[in-house]
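Budget justification aside, the reviewers requested a transparent look at the raw inputs and outputs of the sequence design task funded under Objective 1. We therefore reproduce one unedited record. The lines immediately below are the structure tokens for a 189-residue chain.
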């Protein structure tokens, strides 16, 4: 693996993403400051409380550095992380926070990913955002739960409304690592 993957560590479930990346044998670190973006080949925005993380992104002057980073390198937003990517206009989707409503605050369901059709993964939804519309043909649908789109790719960026870091299998993390490796600008550290 070349370079390191940052996991935004302002709030939320960054620890479990670091563990998942470790299972994939990908070098990774918790990212606390915008200047640390320079040393990353990709960045994961974890689940958590999107309003709190957004506030911290503003307070720590992350917003513009993140947008610049995203022009060159892949981001992977999970749950609240997907909400943040949409708020940053990095994804052409409309997202409704807590879109699965009170009855279905949390649930788990098997899913198949478009790039790995022979495999079923277990997807855990926790007060998950719902993708209510896909606003560009550039958005590729990677998974649906019944009718709902729950995982997408747009260019080099990946996002899902569930929590792949909370299950033991690592298909989506491995896919993200492959997106990070594909970038020609990557240099071995
Ligand atoms: N409901 C949370 C929010 O809107 C996201 C939940 C999660 O990341 N598990 O920020």
């Amino acid at each position: 693996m070349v370079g390191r993957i940052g996991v935004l560590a302002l709030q939320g479930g960054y620890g479990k993403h670091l563990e998942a990346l470790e299972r994939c044998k990908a070098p990774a670190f918790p990212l606390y400051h915008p200047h640390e973006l320079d040393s990353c080949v990709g960045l994961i925005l974890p689940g958590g409380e999107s309003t709190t993380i957004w506030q911290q992104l503003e307070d720590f002057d992350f917003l513009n550095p993140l947008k610049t980073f995203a022009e060159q390198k892949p981001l992977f937003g999970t749950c609240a992380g997907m909400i943040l990517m949409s708020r940053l206009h990095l994804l052409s989707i409309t997202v409704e926070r807590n879109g699965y409503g009170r009855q279905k605050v949390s649930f788990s369901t098997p899913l198949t990913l478009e790039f790995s059709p022979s495999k079923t993964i277990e997807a855990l939804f926790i007060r998950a955002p719902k993708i209510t519309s896909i606003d560009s043909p550039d958005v590729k649908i990677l998974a649906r739960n019944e009718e709902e789109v729950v995982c997408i790719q747009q260019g080099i960026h990946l996002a899902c409304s569930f929590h792949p870091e909370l299950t033991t299998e690592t298909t989506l993390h491995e896919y993200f690592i492959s997106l990070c490796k594909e970038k020609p600008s990557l240099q071995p550290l």
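Residues 47-50, 79-80, 83, 97-98, 126-127 surround glutamine (CB under 6 Å). The radius of gyration is 15 Å. Computational costs for records of this kind are itemized in the attached budget.
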